[in-house]
Amino acid sequence: MIKNEEFQDEIGDNHVSLSAKNPVRDDAFDITDDEKIEKIKKDVESILITLGMDLTDDSLKGTPNRVAKMFVKEIFGGLNPAKKPKASTFDNNYKYGEMLVEKNIIVYSTCEHHLLPIIGRAHVAYISNGTVIGLSKMNRIVEYYAKRPQVQERLTMQIVQELQIALGTEDVACVIDAKHLCVNSRGISDIESSTVTSEFGGKFKDNVTRREFLDYIKLETKF
């Protein structure tokens, strides 16, 4: 039987997701952002001191505070439901009934197994059933769900599910092609590989519609 620690390492090294939702505790927002920053600052100080770093050096003095603010205000800001973007939708008065594709949305996320960056591009599409969404809101939805400790498969699903709710249609698709620095910079250290994930809803499950979408984004990968 595999020991618990070995099992956890295996999950992390193989980038396995055990939950379709981000594992956030119920009391995650019982304290303020400023209180979180103070707590994380002390933890980062402890890590750096344990590693043998001299925090009296001018270059390192502000590092614990910078890292704490970055965690709370920036790269993990998408954990806070108060920061969820409002998905502004409008009636499709011009009766556009074809596929709308937003290509090359930049993805900056963080692998929840090693807390290293995930960097890539998301391609999102939908077919209106009477409602359209502001183009910038598609980018903001991607950004919101990316700014948290993530697994790429989950991120892809969350983007599609959020747009399906906002647009009132199942006809939404997302493909993400991203590099994981936990693969590129450690472990196997393969700097060339990237990971492609996809989620297809409604009409995008049809091979013809799916192929049209993939042709738009010029992705060679076969699914």
Structure description:
This protein is of the alpha+beta class and 223 residues long. 38% of the residues lie in helices and 21% in strands. It has seven helices and seven strands. The strands form two sheets. It has a five-stranded mixed beta sheet. A two-stranded antiparallel ribbon has the order 1-4. Strand 2 and strand 3 form a beta hairpin. Helix 2 crosses helix 3 and helix 4 runs antiparallel to helix 5. It is globular and about 65 Å long. One of its GO terms (cellular component) is cytoplasm. This is GTP cyclohydrolase 1. Belongs to the GTP cyclohydrolase I family.
Which terms summarize this structure?
223 residues; GTP-binding; one-carbon metabolism; two-stranded antiparallel ribbon; single chain; five-stranded mixed sheet; globular; 21% strand; 7 helices; alpha+beta; hydrolase
